[in-house]
Design a protein that fits this description.
- The chain is an alpha+beta fold and about 375 residues long.
- The protein has a single domain, classed as Transposase Inhibitor Protein From Tn5, Chain A, domain 1.
- It contains twelve helices and eleven strands.
- Strands 1, 2, 3, 4, 5, 6, 7, 8 and 9 form a nine-stranded mixed beta sheet that branches. Strands 10-11 form a two-stranded antiparallel sheet.
- Helix 1 runs antiparallel to helix 11, helix 4 crosses helix 5 and helix 4 packs parallel to helix 10.
Length: about 375
């Protein structure tokens, strides 16, 4: 069964198609029956333990930066339970506004991303709970969390007040309205200011935040835009040992830029995501775990077999052409094919219908 899933992942196809092209292995009906018996909690725990064991030997002994982001897989069907749908509503993408959503935590170290934790998120309102889960999993793995880069959706009073009480160092972009943009988007130099984030429910005192407004000039290289670009971040904790207003503002943007590679890694992992139209949360969570672990293994193999020592702050460089992610999937396909065999026949074994003869087709 595992070989069938890996073969489907290597070709970004379904388990049914992988079984149709295999000589050995469980039948398509048996494979579907096994996947339908998956339980969400057990699958989540198995995925957590698997990612933990895979990442533990490669965790740096010092504090590292981590990034928390969302991964979404589009969904086109109906809800299992209309009162409690298993998907969330998102902006329209690929012809649908429904998606299965997951929260992932990635190590961001020297240009590499390594997924340490992943959790299914059943609805948007449990951001703090999901954030605590992935942070707990990362610490259980042995990660010493330094700076924490969050998606702008985590800019809420509940999340930031909890992280502030824990003493975390956090960088998160603001969700701004037109009034706040007019307030902060001015001048041609970067600056630091203060802001008090109020609780919309009125349960707690205002949370003081340090706002970094980074001003960059757009020279028409991206989308043909010119003029000043304002990048506004909320900062908790200390970015350096300097005084509070002596923190280099450019460093804020450069640090947060390390997180942008997660979107690229998401696209890479999608190449190894088996296809399915199943509504089961556990079924889809298993497929996501397979894709994430394959991407992690690709990162490990690149570091071990395609890296070369270089002088400079990085200390090494990678020869990207030696091992592409497609090459790893090709090797995986060959390995699964040796176990399952390869079916070389296609089509229906039954004779063609006689109706085709009435249409003037010659049947032999």
């Amino acid at each position: 069964m595992a070989d069938l899933v890996l073969r489907a992942a290597s070709r970004h196809s379904s388990v049914a198609r992988a079984r149709a092209h295999s000589k050995r292995g469980p039948s398509e009906r048996h494979a579907q029956r096994v996947l339908e018996q998956l339980v969400r909690r057990k699958t989540q725990r198995a995925l957590t333990l698997a990612l933990r064991e895979q990442a533990r030997p490669y965790i740096p002994p010092h504090s590292v930066d981590v990034a928390v982001d969302f991964r979404e897989t589009p969904y086109y069907g109906q809800a299992i339970d209309p009162r409690h749908p298993q998907f969330v509503k998102t902006k329209e993408e690929r012809g649908t506004h429904r998606a299965y959503r997951y929260v992932t935590l990635d190590l961001v170290h020297r240009g590499f991303r390594f997924t340490v934790a992943a959790h299914y998120l059943d609805h948007r309102g449990r951001l703090l709970h999901a954030l605590r889960d992935v942070l707990h999993d990362a610490e259980k793995t042995g990660v010493q969390i330094g700076r924490l880069y969050l998606d702008r959706e985590f800019y809420t009073y509940e999340v930031l007040s909890s992280l502030s009480a824990q003493g975390r160092t956090v960088i998160v972009p603001l969700r701004l309205g037109s009034r706040q943009r007019k307030k902060w988007e001015h001048g041609q130099r970067s600056y630091v200011t203060e802001h008090s984030l109020k609780d919309s429910k009125g349960r707690g005192p205002p949370l003081p935040l340090r706002i970094h407004v980074v001003v960059r000039y757009q020279a028409g290289k991206k989308f043909g835009k010119h003029g000043c670009q304002y990048l506004i971040y909320a900062v908790l904790g200390h970015l350096s040992l300097n005084a509070r207003h002596a923190v280099p503002l450019r460093q804020t943007h450069e640090l947060y830029r390390r997180r942008f590679g997660i979107e690229s890694s998401d696209r890479i992992a999608h190449l190894a995501l088996p296809r399915t139209c199943a509504r089961s949360v556990a079924w889809r969570l298993l497929y996501l775990g397979v894709a994430l672990m394959l991407e992690n293994e690709w990162t490990i193999l690149r570091l071990l077999y395609t890296s070369e020592g270089r002088q400079g702050p990085g200390g090494l460089t990678l020869r990207e052409e030696l091992l592409r992610f497609e090459d790893l999937l090709e090797l995986l396909f060959f390995g699964a094919s040796r176990v399952l065999g390869t079916g070389r026949e296609a089509g229906n074994r039954k004779p063609p219908p006689l109706r085709l003869r009435r249409w003037g087709m010659v049947l032999q």
